[in-house]
Every structure is written in C-alpha cells, then in structure tokens.
Amino acid sequence: MSVVFYLIAALTIAGGLAAVLLKNLVHSALAVTVAFGGLALLFLSLDAQFAGFAQILVYIGAVAILIVFAILLTRGSDLPKDGVFSRTWIVGLVIAAGSFAVLGWAVLASAPSMSQQTAVPAVTVHDIGVALVGRYVLPLEIVALLLTAATIGAVIVAMHEKGGAK
Amino acid sequence: MTALTAYLLVAALLFAIGLAGALVRRNAILVLIGIELMLNAANLNFIAFWRYGPHPEALTGMMFAIFSIAVAAAEAAVGLGLVIAIYRHTQTTDLDKMNRMKG
Questions:
Q1: Which pLDDT tens digit goes with each residue over A146-166?
Q2: Does A66 contact B at CB distance below 8 Å?
Q3: Residues in B touching A39 (Cβ below 8 Å)
Q4: Is residue B102 part of a domain?
C-alpha cells in the first residue's frame, strides 16, 4: 500500500473520530466535513472519479451545509450542562468495539479467498451515463421520485404549524 | 495485506466510529452525523469491491454507491427536518429528554 493511501485513511479516520468526540457541535460538523472529504479522496484513489466528485457535491456541498443549518437553528452550539455523552455510553462503546472486532475478523479471515484485480477499470462518465439511462433506468426514476418526496416531506415536517403552541 | 483488505479495514473502522457516535452521544444531530458516517463506510466497501472485483465494467458496485449517496441525502434532509420539528415542540435536541411520543 502506498503512503498516499495511509495519509488519506488517517485523515478520514481522524475526521470521523473528531466528529464523534468533540464537544462543540459546530466543530463536529467541521470534522465530519473533513471525513467526507477524505472519503471522496479514497474514492478517487480507487479510480472511481464519478463517485468521488458526487461525494464532494452531495456530502460536502449539501449534507454538511444542512447539518450546519440544523445546528444553528436548534442552538446546538451551546454546550449542555450535563455532558455530551449519554448515560448508557459504556454500552454503546462496547457494541461499537464488538462490531469492529467482528468486521475486522471477517475481513482478515476472508482475505485470502478474495479476488484481486489490479488492472485499472476503463470506465468513463459516458459509460456511467449510458448505464444510468439503460440498465438502471428504473432505479433512477425511483430515486428521482424518492428525492422529490423527501424534499417535500422535509419541508412539511419542518414548516411552522399554523396556530401551534410555539 | 492487500489493497482490498486495507480499504475494507478502513471502512470497518469508520463504521464502528459512526456506530459509537450514534449510540454514545446525546444530541440528535450528532446521532445523524454518526449514521451518515456508517452509510459512507458502506459506500467505501461498494467502491472497493467494484475496483478490485472481477467485472468492473458491469458497474454494479459503482451504481450501488451512487444510488446509496442519493438515498443518504434524502435521509439527511428528512432526519434534520424531524430534529428541527421536535426542537420547535420541546426546545431540546437531547435524546435522553425525548421520552414521549405525544408532543
């Protein structure tokens, strides 16, 4: 493995860890943006240019901004008095460590049987576009419908109710 | 260690971090951030298997990752909308204090 991979992987993991551990929510949002950027770089290092740039557009461009908006609209930058971690945090930590142990064991145990193609796949954006409107046209239409419904639903849920309590 | 194994281990570690964030933090927005990290770890697995799998020209893993990104964006919009709606009702985003179904 190259040095570049280790650098990008360390950046991504550090961003994820900081997002989960930092007390201030605005700092967490910044750290998770770093993790999303690291993931986009990992996609690019896997020769998946389209997925990498889609990751940058969707996650850094949209989801991170959405998270910052939600934090500011809910005054999430104020530190809570009784700590940022839940009462049952030790149980959550044990579950997370256990799932990482199981996943890591499964990956390492099945490593010898996995195929390993080293040739760079010759896939262009043109091929992806043709596949999207050819073989995958039904999922594309369903995702379009889902995104429309989710946008309308999110607006309706977050809209001020008329004559509401607050 | 082969390249595929390294990518899968990074994805597993990122998934565990996201799961820990979703289970350990009190703030609902942080829980959503943890869920996003888990979804991203799954995407990394799809892309890694697409890159090192036997038939990359079939584009299966790539398509799965692209649709997964789209669905995750919809999930983030609806989830954060719900957090804002609950905050307007109860003035809190602390999950330990959200213990009623009835507003």
A1: 999 999 998 888 887 665 544
A2: yes
A3: 14, 40, 43-44
A4: no
Tokens of B101: 């179904």
Contact B2 A116 (CB under 8 A): yes
Domain of residue B30 covers 3-97
A1-81 classified as CATH 1.20.120.1200: yes
Q: Does B45 touch chain A (CB under 8 A)?
A: no
Residues 6+ apart with CB under 8 A from A118: none
For the domain that residue B78 is a member of, what is the CATH number? 1.10.287.3510
Q: Is residue B15 part of a domain?
A: yes
B84-101 pLDDT, tens digit each: 888 888 888 888 777 777
Distance from C-alpha of A155 to C-alpha of B1, rounded to nearest angstrom: 47
Taking CA atoms, what residue in B is nearest to A138? B67
Confirm whether B52 is domain-assigned. yes
